[in-house]
Amino acid sequence: MSAEGGELERTLGFLEAMTLGGGTMIGAGIFILPGIAAQTAGPASSIAYAIAGFVALLAALSLSELATGMPIAGGSYHYVNRALGGLFGAVVGWGMWTGLMFASAFYMIGFGQYLVEPIPFLDGRVFIVGLGLLGLVLLLGVNYYGTEESSAFQNVTIGVETAIVLVFVAVGVFFIDPENLEPFAPFGPGGVVATTGIVFISFLGFEIIATVAGEIKNPGRIIPLSMILSVVLVTILYVLVMLVSTGVIPFESLGDSPIPVSDVAVTYLGPAGVVAIVFAAIIAAISSSNSSILAASRVIYAMGRDGVVTDWFNVSHPRFYTPHRAIAATGGVTALLILVGLEVEAIIALLAEAASFSFLVAYSLVHVSLVVFRRTDPDGYDPSFALPRPVYPAVPILGVGLSLVVVSQMATVVVVIGTGIVAFGVVWYAVYARGRVVSEGLLAEAIRGTPAEPYRVVVPVANPETQRGLLRLAAASAHANEDRGTPELVAVNVTPVAHPSPLQNVEADRADHQRDLLENARDVATEMDVTLRTRAVVARDVGEGILDVLEEEAADEVILGWDGTLGRDDHVFGATVDPVVRHAHCDISLVDLRDEAVGTPVALVAPGPNAPVVAHQAVEFATVDEAVPTLLNVQPPRGAGDSDAENRGRAVVADVAEAAGLDPDEYEVQVVVADDVGQAVVEATSRYDTVCVGLSGRVEGPRIPFGDVTERVVQDVPSNVALIRGS
């Protein structure tokens, strides 16, 4: 993929996904937050972690379905943006990006804190911030160089820190003093819920799995397994760590410590245990920050892809295939947040809670998005992991309710900061993104419910030079048939993938093509007053892909671009078009669009099954430029004194128009009498802008037949040519 592209390589397996997710959660949540949690909930802080883990599990379940349905970079932001539209996408995108940077700064301050506290000559906040910035630079370099390298770094660090934490718990349970656990909840249920909001930052790891979904191999299996397993295992580990910590030393002492786990470990593991814990805490904070930087850069990268921010961010490095610009921007802002950490005591809890607020809001909207996707079942959404009933809709309903309860118990200053970020997202959308985003969301469709029966015209588009013209013809056809159903235009782009590879992120291609389709088709749909949907599909063969779409959409009509060549060997219209002409069960128009202006069409009509369709299509095409089409019939004279040829021709036109359901004022009639029918057709039709000719519905052996008159029109008439076959 070139630097101008937006695709990231799939290089992450199950182990990498687990370490990105679980590693982030095992980090600062264990080594930095226990003191803060104990201070606000006492020994019941273990319950706060359990509640936070349950809220996270609900979000992980909804995200697992969404991520396997659309495994693409962006995580919660992408799903909300796709389901609810650009406004909510901007709110969640900015919330997630800032939240992940808050989290990363929080982790790096904790890293510096654990390193400085045990070493007397490194005392002071300046050292803490300096070490945090140094660690940040290291992580930015790792992320810039490559996702695979970043995840390999995670694998090593997470393995070491997990082993140390397991030893901490396994030995610590034998040193718990039951008296330290009384009273268990000194600040009541309110303190427990408020603490849940503080520690929720500990569970952001599963979101990171969704955010890098575009880089995970075999996403249908690995994403849900790693998400759910990481949340469950880490929640159990957190509860045990808090029970050990508050059981070994009184929670009041724990709350006063900036390095709480180290203070616990020294009581039963001695100096060697402290060294091990300090080492684990340092690498945990670094690995957590690494995951957060990785995820935050993918969020702003995806926002650039969708037009919420400048597409300057939606560029991958030409050599490393990483979103290098997004990584640099994320690192710059995170560095500023770390510098704010010069006031360490005040900033630690604030950064944690601000990140938690942003993600609780995001997850509430993720749950709503799942409901929207279920109700609308959009094209391209085919999750390999789906919540069964009655888990659905219980999970999204409960998830929204619990998220809002936790948010309501947060400190006022945190609510103000979080609300400010939400307000910034709204203002940003109104001022900058509204005219740039191309995703209109599915919310309106979900609220409307099952739409009226449509008259659906499918138009495959690939050539930028003819896209707009084909879309206008398709929109005109759909709109002209509104008496048969609600006019609906489906614009389709098929990406051929001859040999799919697990390293190919075809979802990124699909999203890029869908965005391009929307940009080109939206104005046409507005101009022609039709409902527009877009589909971007991936198939081994383009023709077969188009046929699949026609079948799935139950299309009434398909309008295909065609290069105007007629072959007499293996393919008549081309390898892509021939299968569609042979097997499509709907009306077909093959259009050689030589000029975007449709102008005044002429339909060549003669007795036959396709004639009414040809006549009706000419009338539909004429609405593009508000013209009146001509129905043309050419009659050979039966003799020198044949004076009835004109009348015979008019009778043929009248019969065809009646069969097509046309009123006399919808068309004009032209009858040409000539011995050389082919030459007469060419001369007569050359005066019109678009020529509509019937295509035989018969298939003779392996060939699709076309007559001599059709061949002469295609080769000799300079106008647009449409070959039409009825269903």
From TrEMBL:
Question: What keywords would UniProt list here?
Answer: Cell membrane, Membrane, Transmembrane, Transmembrane helix
Q: Which InterPro entries match?
A: AA/rel_permease1, APC_superfamily, Rossmann-like_a/b/a_fold, UspA
Principal location class: membrane
Membrane-crossing residues? 12-37, 43-63, 84-107, 127-146, 158-176, 188-210, 222-245, 265-286, 326-348, 354-373, 385-407, 413-432
* Any Pfam family the entry gives: AA_permease_2
Question: Start and end of every UspA domain?
Answer: 456-590, 608-725
Q: Which SUPFAM superfamilies match?
A: Adenine nucleotide alpha hydrolases-like
* Gene Ontology cellular-component terms listed: plasma membrane
The cellular location(s) given in this protein's UniProt record come to: Cell membrane
> What membrane topology was assigned to this protein in its record?
Multi-pass membrane protein
- What this protein is called in its record is Amino acid permease
Originating species: Halobium salinum
The organism's lineage is:
Archaea, Methanobacteriati, Methanobacteriota, Stenosarchaea group, Halobacteria
